[in-house]
Amino acid sequence: MEEQEIQMKTICRVCKIHLDKVAQAKKLTSREFFILSHPKRMININFPLIRDDGSIEIVESFRIQYNESRGPTKGGIRFHQKVEEEEVKELAFLMTLKCAVVDIPFGGAKGGVRINPKKLSRNELQQLARTYIKEYARFIGPDFDIAAPDVNTDPEIMGWMLDEYEKIAGKSMPAVITGKPIALHGSKGRVYSTSLGGVFVLEEYLKYKKMKTPSIAIQGFGNVGANFAKILFGKGYRVVAVSDSSGGTYNKAGLDIKKVEAHKQETGSITNFKGGKNISNAELIALDVGILAPAALENAITDENAGRVRAKAVLELANGPVSPEADDVLNKKSIDIVPDVLANAGGVVVSYFEWLQNISSDYWSEEEVNMRLEKYMKNAFDAVLELKDEEHNFRKAAYVLAINRILEAEKARGNLPRNNK
Ligand code: NAD
User: Fold this and answer.
1) Of 76, 101, 217, 398, whose CB neighbour count within 10 A is largest?
2) Any residues with Cβ below 6 Å from ligand 1, and which?
3) Distance in Å, CA 85 to ligand 1 centroid
């Protein structure tokens, strides 16, 4: 097959668009560009799921190990009806950059299964988790590729996956998966670490901008969005709007997030909350707020609605919530975007801590975890900020930081020439 054809088949569209911007400015060689824009290993397995009624469904699944120059690959597993190879590729690319931005010794990966887990019984869900690991066991491992939760997967599912992996391995190997329940050697603080990391980054950003009391709107009220809202509320910030897939609630004076959470637990949704007025997700994105934090799925802000964004800054808690086209629109409007590879990296940092604790059998207190997390997030913010003026925006600065670190590792391995020849 011609090289051109291989490129067309495996290149990641979104990664290429972002990389193109960096490549022009940084004068990346074609070899460097090739390494960065192509995943190292793509695994695609179709496997049967036996439903409770005895019928058999074939589900399509993926694991993409994007780059391992800085260490074993690392990334979550997503269960969602819209999972596509292209999406997993993009998420694996982002994981690669993220681990490099926060300077932990991992490469990036991502896994996914195209299925709507909400339509499965608990029994079927457990079978899905166990079968995924059975199928991928030969491709993952504590020193090779480490899994974790993502959208619609949680500590309980990680526990089932670990159990299945250890049965195959015939020994205890907790470091193969992070985000596990505490009872199975999970780390304290992991459940809310992405959100807490986001808060540390936000506070550094606010200090830098000398912004004191911004109003904050959050899209998505799952693990990341709800914990982010709760931590901010606990610290006295004014969270004026939150939403989930069924819609949102808004109160200019600030929402009582504990009550919103109780309402969601009671009714299953955020809408019709008494302490706020109902708004749609489209309205939330267009609110005149200090900080807009998309914490749901990719492409919440595209070229279609970017023109309506009125926030002073966007904190990307989800992965890829601002499309590359929307990125250009927001940059032109001088709206800062604190990118996903920095803003939501707290989860992978504490996953790294969990892995460290597992391989050393030395377990840390919650305070210790959070203290170390703060240090990593602040260091990463400072390193990005140092490049920001030269690179004009936070995303480009974070990309340049990550790419420099990845290419340095590739050069040290002899995979790239040192002198750009
Ligand atoms: P989750 O499944 O717990 O929550 C997702 C939330 O988004 C839910 O409240 C859901 O109702 C809402 N949602 C879905 N579609 C929506 C829509 N169209 N409009 C508004 N809300 C919508 O997932 P999560 O773990 O909180 O992850 C959210 C994002 O953060 C994802 O992009 C994920 O990749 C990213 N992320 C998660 C972690 C982590 O540690 N969980 C770490 C890094 C990044």
Assistant:
1) 398
2) 149-152, 194, 219-225, 243-245, 281, 295-297, 317-319, 344, 347
3) 19
Which structure tokens are listed for 71?
Answer: 């260490």
> What is the 47 CA–ligand 1 centroid distance (Å)?
26
pLDDT at 8: 53
The rounded Å distance from CA 268 to ligand 1 centre is 16
* 139 CA to centre of ligand 1 in angstroms: 26
pTM assigned to the model? 0.93
CB atoms within 10 A of CB 151: 23
- Ligand 1 pocket test: which of 91, 150, 158 has the largest number of ligand atoms within 8 Å of its C-beta? 150
- Give the closest residue (by CA) to ligand 1 atom 30: 318
Q: Which of 116, 194, 228, 231 to mutate to test the pocket of ligand 1 (most atoms within 8 A of CB)?
A: 194
pLDDT digits (tens, 9 = 90+) for 190-244: 999 999 999 999 999 999 999 988 999 999 999 999 999 999 999 999 999 999 9
Q: Which residues are catalytic?
A: 110
Question: Which residues share a beta bridge with 48?
Answer: 58
* pLDDT tops 90 at residue 407: yes
